Amino acid sequence: MNKKWEVIFDYLMYLIRENKVLPGEILPSQNMLKTKFGYSEQPIRIAFNKLIELQIVKSINGKGFVVQDKISNNLLFSFRELFPGSKNKYYDLVEITCNKQLSKMTGFQEGKKLLYFKCLRKTNTDEIILYQESYILRDKFKSITIEKLNESGLMLWIENNSNSIISHSSKEISFVNESDNNDLLNNFKDKDSFNFILDLGKVYDIFGEMLEFRKSWYDPKYFKWNFIEWRK
């Protein structure tokens, strides 16, 4: 379980990331957050100070904590933003049992029932950007279907059809030049070489519970990540 300030921080980040509070608008006050979460002032103050440190918000006397424009803080909320105008196609949704090997890879508990599905992301000219395999807990998202995924995507479906509030994801990025994944190779069969950016990602809610494990292979020619490294 996250520390209290992290719960507040993740909730405020959710409001910003999902455009519930837009640049130039004011985040909920400390008193509102005290009422909502039942926390003291200290963890709430720590959360706001962290947002200020990251240049995500600024404090304005007599007004409150104002969200800054993303150009100002250079904060990337989603890898999806790397590919504006792209579209996803989900397919092959099946139920599986998490075995020892899968538990080690995904972090889900051994013996748990999972839903496994695949996804292709394409450009607006129908070129494949990535191939992705995802795992989610069946009991938590048992009403999800391929039709619903293709209608809205997983993140939007979770937001609109579950009690979970998505907070953040962790990513492990590497470069690979070979694979024994037949689906991956078949989808990219027209490539001159099988070089990929491999993204191992875990999506969490505001309470630190993992919602999804995803394994994504990007075509390197579409992968360009501009960011600022902050010195601490």
TrEMBL record:
Keywords, alphabetical: DNA-binding, Transcription, Transcription regulation
Gene Ontology terms: biological process: negative regulation of DNA-templated transcription
Molecular functions (GO terms): DNA binding; DNA-binding transcription factor activity
Pfam families reported in the protein's UniProt record: GntR, UTRA
Residue ranges constituting the HTH gntR-type domain according to the UniProt record: 2-70
This protein's record includes keyword Ubl conjugation: no
InterPro entries documented for this protein: Bact_HTH_transcr_reg (IPR050679), Chorismate_lyase_/UTRA_dom_sf (IPR028978), Tscrpt_reg_HTH_GntR (IPR000524), UTRA (IPR011663), WH-like_DNA-bd_sf (IPR036388), WH_DNA-bd_sf (IPR036390)
Origin: domain of life: Bacteria
Transmembrane segments: none
Protein known as: HTH gntR-type domain-containing protein
Species in which this protein is naturally found: Spiroplasma cantharicola
